[in-house]
Amino acid sequence: MSPFASLLAIPFPAIDPIALQIGPIAIRWYGLAYVAGLLLGWLYLKRLVSTPRLWRDEKPPFSPELADDLFIWVAIGVIVGGRLGHVLLYEPGYYLSNPLQILYVWQGGMAFHGGMLGTILAMYLFARRQGVPALSVMDTVSAAVPIGLFFGRIANFINAEVVGRETNVPWGIVFPGWGDMARHPAQLYEAALEGAALFLILRYLIYRHRALATPGLIGAAFLAGYGGFRIICEFFKYDEYRTIVSEGWLTTGMIYSIPMALFGLVAYLVLRPRTAS
Length: 277
Hints:
This protein has about 280 residues and is mainly alpha-helical.
């Protein structure tokens, strides 16, 4: 990258990481972004189970009241799974040496793949406890997850973490703590694809093709869509987490996402309703 190109780069916006300070209590934008994602996802999920025409025989798998309980289960799964996923999948050596840092969630460091596993476990336990179909629970949560992903990636941007590779593109940004060269705003790419685009795709399948009437179909579409979009975005990221592959274009995020995308695609093709000839 030429010095001239770096002069044309967009400076990182002056965002105070603390949204509100009340005495010794600091409320950070990072935390607010995750709270916004969870709350909006919960409201969307409640709307889905409050719309009988979207479901098989017009019977939602559980009541809107149970969605309140599901929200608590999912929130715990996201936070615990996401944090432990980051610790175990990306920086186990650092956290083994600094175990107390595991609790410092507000400083950043949440892994989607870990959060997904934590959420799957939470959804399974919720479905078993309430006696409702596990696949349909996973479908409703999957439809709402892109909302959380959107706000989560915005939180990454505010924290100037998960940055992209150095670039000459006009929209490259000079991130604080990452040198003087412009980089791809990879967090915003992920917010657009894994968040906004994936949400619209799933919504289209739900409202135009009644995909929720086929248990497991939206969950499969989510896995395929997220995995595919994540693989694309990985090409633009700074390769800071090469814990498995030390050289080449294949990143750890890709390694975790490729099986997800393939499994989701196969499951979607198997589950999708066949049009009568």
